[in-house]
Design brief:
The protein is α/β, with parallel strands linked by helices. The protein contains twelve helices and five strands. A five-stranded parallel β-sheet has the order 2-1-3-4-5, sandwiched between helices. Helix 9 (170-180) packs across helix 11 (196-210) and helix 9 crosses helix 12 (215-225). The longest helix is centred in the first third of the chain and has 15 residues, at 28-42. It is globular, with a radius of gyration of 18 Å. The chain starts with 5 loop residues before the first helix and ends with a helix.
């Protein structure tokens, strides 16, 4: 199976809706097979990289978000996050980070979300879960269980009363919580029995109050303050 080299194929990836999927890890056979299968499922160009090489990733910079799938096989999730942190901090709007081959039950997901991770795939997950999750993250969503998101918010209720609640109204906190869970405007409107126009107005006011420009940034703010 031929190597996939971002330096020679980067232009093609950028033209594909401005997005690319980068599978990073030492297991070349696994990653090549994943790249081939994900390309068929998502119609987004995929590259399998042997290691985390920023020079190679720079060749894929474009208008869209690139999804980094980082292999945590044999590593602690925190270690993987530390390895990815420099690129995420350098270009926070260019790369969406998901970790795969994670072990369940480590309890590290909440901390990883606050550091910028967008989704998690576990050792026992079937490929269809991976394909579905990748598509969701490329569409701007999080691929995290609702329980993890809910626990993250509930564990910080005291902090919410001291910080977030001083900034946001009770209704705005409700809506921001739904955004963190990945709900669309229509789903939020249905859940809270209000119009989508009212939801949009609340979201505009939330973004203005907490000084963010996207749902992703608002979710990161919520992870730190709610």
């Amino acid at each position: 199976m031929p190597d996939r080299k971002p330096k020679t194929s980067g232009a093609c990836a950028i033209n594909m809706q401005g997005k690319a999927i980068l599978i990073v890890g030492p297991n070349k056979l696994q990653n090549e097979l994943m790249a081939s299968s994900l390309e068929k499922e998502t119609a987004v160009k995929c590259f399998a990289l042997n290691n985390y090489a920023e020079s190679e990733l720079d060749a894929l910079q474009g208008e869209g978000h690139h999804l980094l799938l980082y292999d945590c096989m044999g590593k602690e999730a925190g270690e993987c996050m530390e390895e990815c942190a420099p690129l995420i901090e350098k270009q926070p709007g260019a790369h969406l980070l998901c970790l795969f081959n994670l072990r369940r039950g480590t309890g590290k997901e909440e901390s990883l979300l606050m550091q910028g991770a967008r989704g998690f795939f576990y050792l026992e997950d079937p490929f269809q879960n991976l394909a579905k999750g990748v598509q969701a993250v490329l569409n701007g969503e999080f691929w995290v269980s609702r329980k993890i998101m809910t626990d993250l918010i509930e564990k910080n209720n005291q902090k919410t009363r001291r910080t977030g609640q001083d900034i946001l109204s009770r209704r705005e906190i409700e809506i921001l919580t739904k955004i963190v869970e990945g709900a669309t405007n229509e789903q939020i409107a249905n859940k809270l029995c209000i119009s989508t126009h009212t939801v949009k107005t609340h979201i505009y006011n939330i973004f203005k109050k907490i000084n963010v420009k996207s749902r992703f940034q608002s979710a990161l703010w919520a992870a730190k303050h709610l």
